[in-house]
Amino acid sequence: MIIAGNTLGQISAPAIDIDRIESDINAIARFGFNEEDRGVYRQGFSEEDMAARNWLRERFGELGMDHRMDGAGNVIGRFGPAEGPAILIASHLDSVPAGGIFDGVLGVVAGMEVVRAMKDAGIEPAIPIEVIATSEEEGRFGGMLGAQAMTGKLTRGWLDMARDEHGYALKDAMSAAGLDPYGALHAYRRPEEIHAFLEIHVEQGPVLDMEKTTIGIVEGISGVFKWNCRLIGKADHAGTAPMDMRSDALMGMVDFAHEIRRIIDEHGTDKSRITIGHVACKPGFPHTVPGQVDFTIVGRDLDEAVMTDLAAACERVLSSIARRHKLHFAYEQMSWLQPAHCDTGLMALMEEKAKARGFSYRIMPSGAGHDVQFFCNHVRAGMFFVPSVGGISHAPDEWTHWSDIERGVQLLLDCVLELAT
């Protein structure tokens, strides 16, 4: 550890200032805050998102950090030596519509507080630290642009085709924000430039809160497959078609929904998830038997072999149900994302530091996607959670107690101090 401008006897133990963290989180919440529903509207590359990024660069400047915005819109502040591989502390600033104030923002503010705490204690790291606010993590345009760009998972073809749900092109949104869209292809960070990647995030689920556990050390990000499915039967008069003579597409889908638990019991694990998240009946009239139903299936697990088994089981069960109900079944696989496993060495470091602080913790998967998943196969990368009250996230009622945030950021500081020496 390099001591800047102090003798060893003048060094104080670095500590987190929760008041600064609270102030920063509340300041960022103002960008895109809606008074009516109390939600945050700060989608990627919106005016509100870019204003928050500029605010962050000003804070980096006040801390004396070298800072820049790369071609993908990632805001990067560097503390410590100008050369050499860096410890990256990263998360995102963009939000879903009507989102909460902690999702992503906590990870960015936590990184900034780590730097402040080290500077307050007179500690300059031997290994540089970069605090990064990644761009467009929430998938407005169908990906995690900033993390994809930094890890080389971005192509010109994808940039050309990416659009949001309203058909607005990613390239147009980036241009409106003052960025050259193809500049994102120059944001790649070679593995040898990165010492380690760390992310702290609110859990966005109920486990830690229900168990009264302080820290969730993430073992990996679940892989995800998404299907668009269709069952086609026969539209019929709801009053005249006998129940045993119908080809009711919706009844077929409902039968499948009842089979999900059995599919997981037989082919999955305690980390498996299968969800029917969207359903559309046609013709969609109260007095007509549904002749067609379109629906989504999203499956998740931390083991890709298990994902394959789950997908095969879903196809078999749906085919069987279709025959029973005299339906035609078809599906299109929209995406297949492999699981990403966190670095075991960083997991052990988090566990060691949590024990030293007396924090309760558990090892757990993440069913939600995060920036870290793109770094897991690129460099050594790790992540941990702090509790979400009631498991609520992506909503105005998202909340994490300040005391839990304080413990989490202190754990992050402890881990960074170990890595930076």
Describe the structure using short key phrases.
421 residues; alpha+beta; Aminopeptidase; Alpha-Beta Plaits; 2 domains; 9-stranded mixed β-sheet; 5-stranded antiparallel β-sheet; 12 helices; 18 strands; 23% strand; elongated; disordered N terminus; Amidase_Cbmase
Terminal Cα separation, in Å? 5 Å
Order of helices and strands: EHHEEEHEEHHHEHEEEHEEEEHEEHEHEH
Determine the strand fraction and express it as a percent band: 15-25%
Number of helices: 12
Q: Considering DSSP H and I runs of 4 or more, what fraction of the residues is helical? A: 25-40%
Strand count, sense and barrel status of the largest sheet are:
9 strands, mixed
For this structure, the quaternary state is single chain
CATH architectural category of the largest domain: 3-Layer(aba) Sandwich
Average of per-residue pLDDT values: 95
Identify the overall geometry.
elongated
Family: Belongs to the peptidase M20 family.
Keywords: Hydrolase, Metal-binding, Zinc
Pfam family, one: Peptidase_M20
Cofactor: Zn(2+)
How does this model look, in words?
It comes from Croceicoccus pelagius. Keywords: Hydrolase, Metal-binding, Zinc. This is Zn-dependent hydrolase. Zn(2+) 1 binds at residues 92, 103, 201. It is a single chain. This protein has 421 residues and is α+β, with helices and mostly antiparallel strands. It folds into 2 domains: 2-221 and 340-419, Zn peptidases (Aminopeptidase); 223-337, Alpha-Beta Plaits, CATH 3.30.70.360. The chain is built from 12 helices and 18 strands. The strands form 4 sheets. Strands 2, 3, 4, 6, 7, 8, 16, 17 and 18 form a 9-stranded mixed sheet that branches. Strands 9, 11, 12, 14 and 15 form a 5-stranded antiparallel sheet that branches. Strands 1-5 form a two-stranded antiparallel sheet. A hairpin with a 5-residue loop joins strand 2 (66-69) and strand 3 (75-79). Helix 3 (105-120) crosses helix 12 (402-419) and helix 8 runs antiparallel to helix 9 (304-324).
